Every structure is written in structure tokens, then in C-alpha cells.
Amino acid sequence: MTAYPKTAALMARGAEFLGSEYAVLCGAMSWVSERNLVSAISNAGGFGVIACGAMTPDLLDAEIAATRALTDRPFGVNLITMHPMLFDLIAVCAKHGVSHVVLAGGIPPKGSIEAIKAFGAKVLVFAPTIALARKLFRSGADALVIEGSEAGGHIGPVSTGVLAQEFLPVLAQDHIVFVAGGIGRGEAMAGYLEMGAAGVQLGTRFAAATESIAHPDFKKAFFRANARDAIASVQVDPRLPVIPVRALKNKGSEEFTAKQIEVARALDSGSLDMGAAQLEIEHFWAGALRRAVIDGDVERGSVMAGQSVGLITAELPVATILANLLGECEAALDKRQKVA
Description:
This protein has 14 helices and eleven strands. The protein has helices spanning 5-10, 12-18, 35-43, 57-70, 86-96, 112-117, 130-138, 160-171, 186-194, 204-207, 216-224, 251-269, 274-293, 318-339, and strands at 24-26, 49-51, 76-80, 100-104, 122-126, 143-147, 153-154, 176-180, 199-202, 230-232, 245-248. It is globular, with a radius of gyration of 19 Å.
């Protein structure tokens, strides 16, 4: 018997799809979503997701094995579609019998969805438009995550609230759709579940959890911040397809602007082609994020955070965070039912 019956009922499809007690995914955050946080979330009844990011196949192999040693519950792996060794990483997931693979960062390349489904895993994708979402479902995707611009890390231009109103009435009845971006309290979860979402994804809310390996100074930056401190990066050169990144404003934000200028000049000189230019940008973010998360350099590193960061004021265990979210959601649903 669950302590959150109304929430569980609305999450039933999503929870069944994930194989978890509750349909609450942790967004994949490079350097943060590793074995400790992922296993803690899955053990608490949510669904942890390993952030592969720029990992090599060997590193991912070790990370999956280490996570399995800490939990016997389902978890997923997030793969970046532009990774030059994507199919090798998929093979690692196949070796371990990973149950769910999230393809992020762009349109999945030809054959990638098929390669994942070939070993029985379920595929989750992101899509900025309904047309693309439908195409990905036709291509074999099993679930969709719609993520609004309030989120941390790489973001799109449209808010979560607008995306939910656009996608859920059209797709949620026939497909599994999770909502992400700016969710920091259970009342917001309740609203999206009532609109038809199968579940939700949160990243920022878990980044400063007790089980997160993020440096203490990284977590303290979260506790000091408010929503307005989490700003989106600016695209300097229209020729350079830079996906905006939301992070706490600091010197690192300024250095990214300088990096874009440097890469644009390399494009002008012909020393870089467009593909290499994009990888340069991604490598910048990977390095800057590591400096912040692992080394604690919150001045020059990238402190990626969503606008819900202002709701985080203390370090709490994952189980407590999840219980608080579910309790708030259940109370909101109960209140609305009584009013109705």
C-alpha cells in the first residue's frame, strides 16, 4: 500500500514503463549522475540515469558495473547522440543488459534506436516539436521527454509550461511522455500529471543531494543562488550552432563567450570544420563542468543549474527529497479533489 495513492495512480503508466516505484527520473548531469547518486535515486524508488557524457566505452563499462553493485533496481544510461563512439557505447549497454537508454543532444543518428532495441532496451528521446516527436515514435522510440528552457545544462527556447500545453493533449494519451525543466516542488509535479504526463524528470533538485559527489562548494553555490542567477549562455556567432546552456552566472560564463569567438575564428581560418567546432564547444563545457563539480571551482567552472535552484536551501538525502516531492504532490492532488 503506497503512502501516495493519488500520485501513484497518475504515475502508474510511467512507473510500469521504468520498472520503478515512482515515475520520477533524475536528469542526466555529467560528473554528477554517476554510480552514487544514480543508485541512491533508484534505491529510493525513483529512476536514476547515468550521464555518459564524454565517457569512453571503457569508462561507461566500469560505471554501469559499479552502479549495479550498489542497486538491484532499474536505472538507465544517457548517451549523447553526437558522441563519436555512440555505437560502441550502445554495445556496452547491450553487454550489461541495460533496460533503458536515453538518447539526448540531437536527433538520433540512423540505426541507433534500432541498435538499442535489438538488445531489448527501451529508448527515451527528446524532441522540441510534435512533428519530430511523432517521427521518433514511428522510428521506434518508446518514450519522450519534453524539457523546458527553465532546466539546467543544455536547453531549448520554450518554457516547460508551454511545452506541456502543446505536447500533452496531443501525445500523452497514446504515448509515454515525461515532463522536465524547472520542477522543484511536488505541486508542479501534480499539475503535469493531471495534464497527462506519465511522470517527471528533475536534475537540479538532486544535484546537491547528500549522495551527490559534487564538491561542497558546488552545493553551497546552489544554496546561495536564486532563480535569476541561473542564466542561459549567449550565442556569439550565428554560424556556430551553439545550444544554450543554463548555469549560475560567474567568470566561466564570460570565458564561454571568449571560447566561441576563438572557435569562430578557427572556422574562418579553415583550421576547424563545423563538426569539429561543435565538439570544441562540447569539450569546453565538459571541462568547465568538471572544474565546478569535482574541483569546486565555482568561479571559473560551469555551475550548471536550472531556475529551480532558488528552491534548494540545504543538503538532503535523496530519499528525503523524493519523499518531500511525493508528499507535496499528494497533498496538492488531495486538495484539488476536495475542492472539486
